[in-house]
Amino acid sequence: MLAGSIRNSFRSPNVSRLNSLVSINRLYAHRITHPKVAPPTLGLPRQRSTMITPSINTGAPSPALFSYSSGRYLYNEKLRFEERHVQFKVNALKEIAASAVGRKQVVHLEKLAEGGFNRVFVLTMDDGLEVIAKIPYPLTVPKTYTTESEAATLEFLRLKGIPVPRVYTYSSTSENTVGTEYIIMEKAPGQPLERRWFDLSPKERVRLVTSFVQIELKLFSIPFASYGSLYYKDSLPQDLRADLYNTAPGEEENRFCIGPSADYMFWRGKRALLDLDRGPWKDHRDYVRSVGQRELEWTIRYGRPRQNDFPHNTIVKGEISPDAYADLLRKYVSMSPHILPGDRENPMNHATMRHPDLNPSNVFITDSCEVSCIIDWQHCSILPLLLAAGNPPLFENPDAEPPKGLVKPSLPENYDSLTPEEKSQADELHRRRMLFYLYMVFNGRDNKAHLRALRYPLLAMRQHAVERADRQWSGNVITLKGALVRLLENWDQLIADSPQQVECPISFDKKDVEEFLVVEDQWFKATILLEHWRSILDGLGQDGWVRHESYAQVVETNKMLKEEWISQAEDEEDYESVDKFWPFQDHEEDD
């Protein structure tokens, strides 16, 4: 059976974590066959490529301005392109941009970049000044709130000394002369960090990390009174506003308030039709509960029986009822008052804003390698510190486990005897370890509140529970249950700060847990195998995104992978588990 084949794919002790560098060329040279071990992935997440279009000055605008052109999708491509098609009036956008910066006209317009939620244009004025126009895709939700919150967040952060682009003007409705929502903003000064990311000298790394930690210190020091997202007061009705601070803000800050969460998951698909608690929240426990309650409401109304994709359908077989997931979400909701420390005044519940997607393409630096600008604050939220805490993707630990002590990394003792390829991998691992080390060191020196949160008991366990309850029903009943089982197993430590003994509100049968842990182990191994396939497919994105130049090869490799696994089928059940539920092919989606 294929389940046995999957188990046999993990005989090596080195598959517990996929975090160190691997040569993509070596992966491609490897024959596409039943893998004996899942190799490590690249440490840095792949960023969507940018595409520069011809300048648009006169005549009819190019259709490429309105359509996605920065990559392909291996599956459900038609839907992905439809979600990213935005028609708008080019001349109206030019006129508004020129007026916003006091110029006569735009003489040059280019499509600069396309990300997961927006299309970005650079507009050049008659005197050479360049500004950015950011236009959200139709898939971007919440409508209106996303643009309102991002515009307010950028202005507020500028007032607090955070290096972000200045907003010149914006519209949070498509009922305007342009025909779509937009933000016109300053072009970020400096150069994108991604251009220098792999070539920073040791001194430049120190300057980068210290300047970034200083920026985070300013963010962590803001005394927000509630959880949610930031808005201008006049953009929200009174009943959706919460005070910015517990004390009266200054005159400039008095324009702002905390309102409903602009987090995508509170509005995704049919959630926008549900009567949900989207904030703002005064109590941290209300926020934690709302995450699970939201998914519970959606699952009850719209969840349908699902079979997992291959290879996970060899671990948990057949159709799974959404009722099983709903039951787990109810357990999560019961546990929600205890996941974070109970006292609202506990420093670990401090309302904290952090960047929602900090990667090298969103950070700009000076020539001396200090942070000059941080862009893309869309969907930014204010969360309890324990849920906001963590190493940004820029400075993540590349190793399977956190180090027991803070020891400066060094190259391996046998470095001089390594092959050039092995030296390259060792250099990259050392570079990433150094960035992690520096981030921890300078947090310890400058941002002690964050370091205390990073060292808080059961931090990862608490975060995992909320993150896994935040996921839409997909047939997966393993990851949330695993998070709940671990909270239960660590109950006494979880409530150590409670002034009185509290009985755990959930339970699992002991034998059920023993059997579950075996299944969970196999589930995680199947996930490792899936990530191995993604690496073979040129780092395939979660939504199927792939580079233009790799698309034809990825299509062929995907076909070979599927055929290889189908050839191992021993019966009709095996065959269908692969053929009908191959993870990288067109499939129906729920919203």
Write the layout of secondary structure elements.
Blueprint (H helix, E strand, L loop, with lengths): L1 H7 L15 H6 L42 E2 L3 H7 L6 H11 L5 E9 L3 E8 L4 E7 L8 H15 L7 E5 L10 E5 L4 E2 L9 H19 L8 E4 L23 E4 L24 H19 L19 H18 L11 E3 L9 E3 L5 E4 L7 E3 H4 L31 H27 L1 H7 L4 H11 L9 H11 L1 H4 L15 H27 L8 E2 L4 H16 L5 H8 L12
Antiparallel strand pairs: 1-14, 2-3, 3-4, 4-6, 5-6, 7-11, 8-9, 10-13, 11-12
Description of the structure:
The protein has 591 residues and is an alpha+beta fold. Among the domains are: 2-43 and 517-579, no CATH class; 52-187, 2-Layer Sandwich (Phosphorylase Kinase, domain 1), CATH 3.30.200.20. Helices cover 37% and strands 10% of the residues. The protein is built from 17 helices and 14 strands. The strands form 5 sheets. A 5-stranded antiparallel β-sheet has the order 2-3-4-6-5. Strands 7-11-12 form a 3-stranded antiparallel β-sheet. A hairpin with a 5-residue loop joins β11 and β12 (371-374). α7 runs antiparallel to α8. The radius of gyration is 25 Å and the shape is globular. The relative contact order is 0.14. The model is unreliable at 7-52 (pLDDT under 50).
